[in-house]
Specification:
The chain has 2 helices and 7 strands, in the order ααβββββββ. The protein has a 4-stranded antiparallel beta sheet with strand order 1-2-7-6, with no helix packed on it. A 3-stranded antiparallel beta sheet has the order 3-4-5, with no helix packed on it. The chain has a single domain, classed as Immunoglobulin-like.
Length: 138
């Protein structure tokens, strides 16, 4: 720890926090679970309102969750000691499976948690047809 203090000063160096601050995708952790009826995406978006988040799906069945964490307005008398919360634009993309009903996607947000539900359509099982084997005379 003494070497780290010499290199980075008295402030504690945390490589994980440094990596997160440089990579906004890591600040939008998203779980994807599949139920028998749907694919469900759950994203942690602390401090954001639903008006600051956009959920869309394109023709290629790619679900996109985008938004922006705005920079707080600063008072000239304020002195910041640490800035660890990520700010700026973020985007997460997920390729949906063939079974996704993209025209029936629903999204809700409560307490900074976004839940996107993508219903699944039933996959037709291939029918089996018995082919009669003919005898060749010759």
């Amino acid at each position: 720890m003494a070497l780290i203090s010499q290199l980075f000063g008295d402030e504690i160096y945390d490589p994980f926090l440094t990596m997160i601050n440089k990579c906004p995708v890591l600040n939008t952790p998203t779980d994807w679970k599949e139920t028998p009826e749907a694919h469900v995406f759950i994203s942690d978006l602390p401090g954001l309102k639903k008006e600051e988040v956009k959920v869309e799906v394109d023709d290629e069945r790619v679900l996109k969750i985008t938004g922006e964490r705005k920079v707080e307005k600063d008072d000239k008398n304020d002195k910041w000691h640490r800035v660890e919360r990520c700010r700026g634009k973020f985007q997460r993309s997920f390729r949906l499976p063939e079974t996704a009903k993209t025209d029936e996607i629903k999204a809700s947000m409560e307490d900074g948690v976004l839940v996107v539900t993508v219903p699944k359509q039933e996959v037709k099982k291939p029918e089996r047809k018995l082919i009669e084997i003919q005898e060749v005379k010759g």
